[in-house]
Amino acid sequence: PVVRSFVMSLVVIIAILYGKKHSFLSLVTLACLIILSLSPTDIASPSFQLTFAAVISIAAAFPIITSINTAIRERFTHEFIIKILSWMNVGLGVSFAATLGTAPILIYHFNLISLIGFAANLIIEPLICLWSLVIGFIAAPLIFVSPTLAELLFSFGAQGISMAMSSAAYFNSLPHSSLMLPTVSII
Q1: Is pLDDT above 90 for 14?
Q2: In this structure, are residues 71 and 21 in contact, taking their beta carbons and an 8 Å threshold?
């Protein structure tokens, strides 16, 4: 999953740096092709499928999230309220989209659907995406310049991952946090 996230992020960053305007679908397809060229059997992996289902679902929800943020800006005048409501809208929208988009794959592969994934993602995703991943991107090139600083940053980023894992374990331990379902066909 980390390699897939890295490849997807790298494809988007390179497209932005070169000023290329591509559709989201072409960037996701390019990332998919790069990943599958390195490991073709990944296509059958639930992890691979979940990664792309989540990313595509979030992208599909983005116009709705953006339109709600526009409505928030039109309705409220206080900048602080606008920022808080917009942040909450993005967090809830992304979490809902990822949960909904990955549900069929979770049911198919694991006969399981999370009933609290929506809420858990609001805590876990920022720890991984806004803390650990960002710090990892900063630390990686520093390995060659200042290994000690890179190691310090990686250790700090690992704390975000550790908190995310602890949060996931907590949510998983809650009663009725998931629902077991019967095996379904691919159709």
Answers
A1: no
A2: no
pLDDT at residue 117, rounded to an integer: 84
Cα–Cα dist 142/147, whole Å: 6
- How confident is the model over 69-115, as pLDDT tens digits? 999 999 999 999 999 999 889 988 988 998 899 999 999 899 988 88
- For residue 116, the SS3 value is coil
97/161 Cα distance (integer angstroms): 22
Tokens 């876990």 correspond to 124
What is the token pair recorded at 184?
């379904």
Query: Which DSSP symbol is given to 130?
Result: I
Compute the distance between CA of residue 138 and CA of residue 183 in angstroms, rounded to an integer.
43
Residue type, 149: L
Nearest-angstrom CA–CA distance, 136 and 116: 28
| Phi and psi angles of residue 24, each rounded to the nearest 5 degrees, phi first | -55, -45
Tokens representing 87 are 């942040």
